[in-house]
Amino acid sequence: MRSGHRLGDGQAQARAARVFSTYRAGSQISRLGRGELTEQQCDPEVAEVLGLCRAAARASSGWFSATPGGRLDPSAVVKGWAVERASQLLYDAGARHHSVNGGGDIQTRGEAAPGRPWQIGVAHPLCPGDLTTLVTGRDLAVATSGTAERGPHILDPHTGRRATDLASITLVGRHLTEVDALATAAFAMGDAARGWLRSLDGIEAFAVTADARAWWTPGFAAYGRVPAHA
Questions:
Q1: pTM over 0.85
Q2: Is 229 helix (H, G, I), strand (E, B) or coil?
Q3: Is the pLDDT of residue 3 over 70?
Q4: Parallel, antiparallel, or unpaired for β 97-102 and 2-6?
């Protein structure tokens, strides 16, 4: 079975909003952030997500934060975690070849067709309608953090200011929960992320800087197209 899915189940989305939405004053995350609930009083998924946030903060030496701007907001983990969970449910139900897309962050399993890997186009953050790279492979997770859709919105957790060194950064790995969180940390880190990403096992990256330069980790070319001249 081969299929492509977008997260669109109304019931699942409603529950996610009830628990994790930072825009709803009555969500569990909002109430937890205001001190009206304890972590133990929230649904078990809240503790799981916050644990993942703490792990991402450790892995990135604090460049990932679940409290950007001083307010509890685990959204940078929630989306990738939810997409990967949906993918696992499909896999366990017998859909061994599928792609789940959550707002442009993608978890794939198996192949797009027999003998044909998945191909994932990455939007160019500075040239609307163009692609900056094309990622190809099997059993991949691909996440992009950048300014193309929402403008500058990721905060440097050390200064509280908007991160502006990069226009976008795309990470490729195996698990979207990890890849999505690390992409957020890498974007906040800016050009300094280049050395850090080279040290991570199983993670490759492609970045476009604010002044339209590109850089990538040494292993990225095994997955994605790179310019002939950087």
A1: yes
A2: coil
A3: no
A4: parallel
Radius of gyration of the chain (CA): 17
The structure tokens listed for 13 are: 């989305």
Q: Report the run of H or E that residue 108 belongs to, with start and end.
A: strand 105-109
Give the phi and the psi of residue 60 in degrees, each rounded to 5: -110, 15
Strand order in the sheet with 214-216: 2-6, 97-102, 105-109, 141-146, 166-173, 204-209, 214-216
Neighbouring residues of 197: CB distance < 8 A, sequence distance ≥ 6 = 171, 186, 203, 204, 205, 217
| pLDDT tens per residue, range 82-94 | 999 999 999 999 9
For residues 18 and 26, give the distance between their C-alpha atoms in angstroms, rounded to a whole number. Answer: 7
pLDDT of residue 2: 61
* Helix boundaries (H) for the chain: 10-20, 28-33, 44-59, 75-92, 176-189, 193-198
Q: Which residues of 25-44 are buried (b: 16+ CB within 10 A; e: fewer)?
A: eebbbbbbbeeeeeeeebee
Distance CA 188, CA 170 (A): 13
- β-sheet bridge partners, residue 166: 209
Q: Do the Cβ atoms of 216 and 170 come closer than 8 Å?
A: no
Among 139, 119, 141, CA closest to 131: 119
> Which phi and psi angles does 176 have, rounded to 5°?
-70, -30
Are 136 and 119 in contact by the 8 Å Cβ rule? The answer is yes
